[in-house]
Design a protein that fits this description.
Blueprint (H helix, E strand, L loop, with lengths): L31 H10 L3 H8 L9 H10 L2 E7 L18 E6 L2 E6 L18 H4 L5 E6 L5 E7 L4 E4 L3 E3 L5 E10 L10
Antiparallel strand pairs: 1-8, 2-3, 4-5, 4-8, 5-6, 6-7
Bound molecules: zinc ion (ZN).
């Protein structure tokens, strides 16, 4: 104990285990989204909520944060774990539920569609970078569900490779079911007067 102030000496945590932004707790049950973004942007969550406009017992949508973020020098690029369009049909016009009619010696036969490999759905290039890949180098906000199946949002710190959960905990990516990752780009740091 410090004999002058009476305070306990701070425990020294090795710097590589300290996240690049401080953990903030959500001020209400429905404000995990603004809290997660506020952490990454290093602004107090109350200030961010004030800028968005207060909600009474209603959850926030990530998009409500994006314009405020933009005016403060931050761009968030959204990446989905399972990218799909509203009607995820195969792009091949001749494909019907993954089957295509072809003619062999004048007789029509049904074969597997080469474009969608028989799934009938629009398939994506496997070279598309996955969220797991992107989280190695980028900070951002993860939106998805908790192990208990509740919709939730957490901040992601790439430096310590941890989710900073607005309920006040930290854990690895394997404990959160990611639907989307809002990758953070601080395009005008001079607009960012942050905390931490
Ligand atoms: Zn097809």
């Amino acid at each position: 104990m410090d004999p002058v102030t009476g305070a306990y000496r701070e425990v020294q945590v090795p710097s590589h285990l300290v996240p690049s932004f401080p953990l903030q707790k959500q001020p209400s049950k429905w404000s995990c989204i603004p809290t997660a973004f506020a952490m990454v942007m290093k602004v107090p969550v109350d200030e961010l909520i004030e800028a968005i406009g207060r909600h009474d017992a209603r959850g926030f949508h990530a998009q409500e944060v994006l314009c405020v973020a933009l005016s403060r020098g931050w761009i968030f690029s959204e990446h989905l774990e399972w990218p799909e369009v509203d009607a995820p049909k195969c792009r091949n016009e001749r494909c019907f539920d993954g089957r295509v009619e072809e003619w062999l010696l004048g007789d029509p036969i049904e074969v597997e569609c080469r474009e969608c490999k028989g799934t009938g759905k629009w398939t994506f290039d496997p070279k598309v970078r996955t969220i797991e890949d992107l989280t190695r180098t980028w900070n951002g906000v993860l939106v998805g569900t908790t192990a208990q199946g509740n919709l939730h949002a957490v901040a992601w710190c790439s430096k310590v490779q941890k989710c900073l959960d607005p309920v006040g905990t930290m854990y690895g990516l394997e404990h959160f079911n990611v639907h989307s990752f809002y990758l953070a780009v601080n395009y005008r740091p001079e607009l960012t007067i942050g905390i931490g």
